[in-house]
């Protein structure tokens, strides 16, 4: 009986030139929105298309206080782990934010649809709210390092 070759082991830690830190640099806000859209557009595109408006909304509501990022040696955002607590979340937003991007009617039906995806969080709980690593950074331990940092954040 032959067995398929196993995948090579994944690194436990990212490359030494990767920095994992709380939040994300304001200069990388567009990149954070793009990584989120890339990771979740399959789930969200019917509610948030067209893409340009989706990215505009995500840029507007991305909250670095509820994110941990991995930055490359050039400062480029390679990955983000978002989380949610009772105080807020990585990708939140209000009806006013939706209205600013999609107009009144567009905000109304999108808000209804997005509310179905909303998960309430009780005080004292940290809810993982997405992890995104750019394609070129996958398999380098970046996701694992982000998960480790999220666990440390959750433990307080």
The CATH architecture assignment turns out to be 3-Layer(aba) Sandwich
Tally of DSSP β-strands: 5
Q: Supply the helix-strand structural class.
A: alpha+beta
| Share in helix | 40-55%
List SSEs in N-to-C order.
EHHEEEHEH
**Tally of distinct domains:** 1
- Summed up, the helix count is 4
- Strand proportion, as a percent range, falls in 15-25%
What is the CATH topology assignment? Aminopeptidase
- Mind telling me the CATH class? Alpha Beta
The whole-angstrom Rg is: 17 Å
What's the end-to-end separation, in Å? 49 Å
Shape field? globular
Report on the structure:
By secondary structure, the chain is α+β, with helices and mostly antiparallel strands. The chain has one domain: Gcn5-related N-acetyltransferase (GNAT) (Aminopeptidase). 44% of the residues lie in helices and 17% in strands. The chain has 4 helices and 5 strands, in the order βααβββαβα. Strands 1, 2, 3, 4 and 5 form a 5-stranded antiparallel beta sheet that branches. A hairpin with a 5-residue loop joins strand 2 and strand 3. Helix 1 (29-48) packs across helix 2 and helix 2 (51-61) crosses helix 3. The longest helix is centred in the C-terminal third of the chain and has 23 residues, at 95-117. It is globular and about 50 Å long.
Summarize, please.
By secondary structure, the chain is an alpha+beta fold. It is built from 4 helices and 5 strands, in the order βααβββαβα.
């Amino acid at each position: 009986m032959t067995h398929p070759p196993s995948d090579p082991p994944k690194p436990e830690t990212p490359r030494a030139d990767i920095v994992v830190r709380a939040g994300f640099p304001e200069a990388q806000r567009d990149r954070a929105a793009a990584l989120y859209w890339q990771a979740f557009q399959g789930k969200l595109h019917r509610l948030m298309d067209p893409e340009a408006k989706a990215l505009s909304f995500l840029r507007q509501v991305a909250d670095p206080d509820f994110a941990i990022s991995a930055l490359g040696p050039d400062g480029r955002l390679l990955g983000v782990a978002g989380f949610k607590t009772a105080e807020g979340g990585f990708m939140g937003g209000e009806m006013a934010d939706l209205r600013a991007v999609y107009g009144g009617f567009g905000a109304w039906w999108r808000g209804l649809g997005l509310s179905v995806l909303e998960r309430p969080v009780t005080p004292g709980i940290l809810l993982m709210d997405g992890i995104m690593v750019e394609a070129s950074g996958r398999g380098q331990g970046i996701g694992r390092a982000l998960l480790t940092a999220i666990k440390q954040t959750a433990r307080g």
